[in-house]
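Q: Okay, next protein. This is Cyanate hydratase from Mycolicibacterium vaccae ATCC 25954. I've checked the sequence twice, so it should be correct. Can you predict the 3D structure?
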Amino acid sequence: MSASLLRCLSRVKPADPCAKRRIACAFGLTLAGSDAFGWMLVRSFPDEMRYDVAYHPALRERAAYEVDAQRIAKGRSWAELAELIGRPPVWTVAALLGSHPMPRDEAEKIGAALGLSDEVVTALQRQPYRTGPGDVAADPTIYRFHELLHVYGPAFKALIHEQFGDGIMSAINCSVSLTKREHPDGDRVVVTIDGKFLPYQWSTETS
């Protein structure tokens, strides 16, 4: 029942509370008030299912949309936001796009810089769902690469577009290296992908 309810609630526009209440009633549940990003079930719902609704991925997805919209509107770069909170750019972008929870003080700094609503600042602090397709390779070593792309892929994409423009990194005109680096906390695996940037281009028959 929880999966069905989550699917129903996630498809309803945030500005349509009546529809959300009707859906909840169909499941014999009661909804409390909400912010712009989600609803909290308060009665006739097990604790673990109540947690799922409160931390539904849609909360972070909508927060990420507002962050990026405000960032563009105010002309702020991802690098500037990273410098603002003293974090690496890739981590910062991943967090703002929903892959990491941000500490309260950092979320509030971002909120002040971008003029975000209180609901978005709160959403940035929520523990995210770090999920991906269910058909990822089962081998633990290979799965780690899938996991890395699930978490940091959106950040890589955002930073490529910011630094290079509209295009992609080639996976056929590239080199990949893997090295071992000794470290006091344990040997490190260093993977480097050196790929050519390919801009999107509109080509005609004569050009």
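A: Here is a summary of the prediction. The chain is about 50% helix and 20% strand. Residues 57-125 form a domain with the 434 Repressor (Amino-terminal Domain) fold (CATH 1.10.260.40).
Q: Noted. On to the next one.
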